[in-house]
């Protein structure tokens, strides 16, 4: 009995599933992972990497992974394996002016009276890129796109008048946290109140701040609740406050126009102590509304400030105090 031959089909290996990893264009942070395409304003990576499946199932933490764009392609990898730096944009962007109380990924502070310029990077931005806040130094080879930070100082509202170019290695900025530049060579060219700054963006957000005098860098490695214990000296002419003895107490004179210059954003609570923080003598409060404009504030306390120390919380990080003898003594309260 004849039988017709059966058609035998050869079935190949089952194709690997594809995953769509949506990520932030600037930081590479993972926003969402799906196994089907979904329209999104964010770019996405299509991958067969099983890491994506482990991330979907919750076996891996998406905060520890990043989408890396390199000259060799786009890859999903652990943050700790690679520092993610984008290439510079092809076009120039103007750095927006922002209040001192606001922070961006890249913060530029011009100190108009001191002719200094500070550039610092937010610790949150570094954490997003690397998964680390400190204790790791990055090498030049990790800048796989050979990115460079450029700042073009121009006359305000006149981009055709280029005054100075500042070049920063992003690896140096990330490792140190900030860079300082002396702009005294511009004193006979233009005032720092009359400049704008252009850049080719590498990071997501930039901001330009303005302060009158340079005291210390704005960059803070980390937030803490440390208290600052100060002596009152008579040698620091750039101190935030001048303190003088009056007939009925003490005078605190602001050595600044705006409290923002010394990061004072609320009432300033000061503990008067002995040599140790545990020897509390008195507590005084300097109201924010009465600080600044080089004005004087009368404070009544029985403590002798010249033999005491001043204890202030984190808000006092940038403060210092200088004793000043009053030149004239007249009857009555002053």
Overview of the structural elements:
With about 325 residues, this protein is mainly beta. It has helices at about 50-55, 125-130, 170-175; strands spanning about 20-25, 30-35, 45, 65-70, 75-80, 95, 105-110, 115-120, 150-155, 160-170, 180, 195-200, 205-210, 230, 240-245, 250-255, 270-275, 280-285, 295-300, 310, 320-325. Helices cover about 5% and strands about 35% of the residues. The longest helix is centred in the N-terminal third of the chain and has 8 residues, at about 50-55. The radius of gyration is 29 Å and the shape is elongated. The termini are far apart.
Brief overview, please?
With about 325 residues, the protein is mainly beta. The protein is built from 3 helices and 21 strands.
Core attributes:
single chain, 334 residues, mainly beta, Immunoglobulin-like, four-stranded antiparallel beta sheet, four-stranded mixed beta sheet, 3 helices, 21 strands
Judged by helices, strands and strand pairing, the structural class is mainly beta
**Poorly predicted parts:** none
Cross-sheet strand order for the largest sheet:
6-12-9-10
CA-based gyration radius? 29 Å
Q: Work out the strand percent.
A: 25-35%
The total domain count is 3
Return the CATH class of the largest domain. Mainly Beta
């Amino acid at each position: 009995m004849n039988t017709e031959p059966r058609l035998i089909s050869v079935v190949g290996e089952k194709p690997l599933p594809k995953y769509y990893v949506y990520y932030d264009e600037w930081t590479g942070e993972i926003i969402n992972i799906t196994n089907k395409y979904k329209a999104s304003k964010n770019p996405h990576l299509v991958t067969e990497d099983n890491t994506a499946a482990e991330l979907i199932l919750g076996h891996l933490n998406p905060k520890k992974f990043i989408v890396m764009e390199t000259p060799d392609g786009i890859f999903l990898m652990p943050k700790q394996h690679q520092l993610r730096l984008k290439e510079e944009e092809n076009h120039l962007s103007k750095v927006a002016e922002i209040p001192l109380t606001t922070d961006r990924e890249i913060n530029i502070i011009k100190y108009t009276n001191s002719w200094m310029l500070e550039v610092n990077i937010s610790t949150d931005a570094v954490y997003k890129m690397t998964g680390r806040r400190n204790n790791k130094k990055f090498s030049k080879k990790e800048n796989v796109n050979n990115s460079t930070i450029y700042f073009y100082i121009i006359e305000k509202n006149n981009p055709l008048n280029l005054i100075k170019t500042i070049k920063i290695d992003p690896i140096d900025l990330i490792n140190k946290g900030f860079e300082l530049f002396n702009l005294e060579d511009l004193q006979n060219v233009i005032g720092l109140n009359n400049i704008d700054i252009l850049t080719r963006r590498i990071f997501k957000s930039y901001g330009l701040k303005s302060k009158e005098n340079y005291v210390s860098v704005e960059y803070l490695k980390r937030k803490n609740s440390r208290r600052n214990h100060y002596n009152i000296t008579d040698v620091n002419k750039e101190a935030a406050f001048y303190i003088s003895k009056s007939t009925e107490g003490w005078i605190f004179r602001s050595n600044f126009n705006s409290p923002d210059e010394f990061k004072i954003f609320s009432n300033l609570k000061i503990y008067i102590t002995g040599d140790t923080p545990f020897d509390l003598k008195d507590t005084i409060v300097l109201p924010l509304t009465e600080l600044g404009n080089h004005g004087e504030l009368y404070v009544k306390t029985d403590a002798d400030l010249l033999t005491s120390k001043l204890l202030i919380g984190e808000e006092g990080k940038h403060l210092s105090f200088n004793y000043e003898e009053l030149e004239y003594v007249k009857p009555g309260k002053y």
